[in-house]
Amino acid sequence: MQQWIFLSVAIVSEVAATSALKASEGFSRLWPSLVVIVGYATAFYFLSLTLKTLPVGVVYAIWSGSGVALIALVAWVFFGQSLDAPAIIGLLLIVAGVVVLNLFSKTVSLS
I need a surface site. Which of 3, 9, 24, 89 has the fewest CB within 10 A? Predict the structure, then answer.
């Protein structure tokens, strides 16, 4: 169960860092830039802990897929980015892929 907590922290940290990237304005603003640096460092640290027990291909698929979907949600809610029907369908397919990996793949260890 601990590896899933580590992966969740990695995902949330990466989403926070990526969101702050826009606010950093090309690393010209101090505090958003620090959030980017600390967020990515935290994300990669917890991702590395996750990889001690789960396969890299599955972890990366979950991490990147979840990150893409969450970043799109953050961009929609906080930055006013519009999402048309194809974008929403694509994001739902990504989320469905992550769910299929977690629920049905024998590659993913649930210990």
Answer: 89
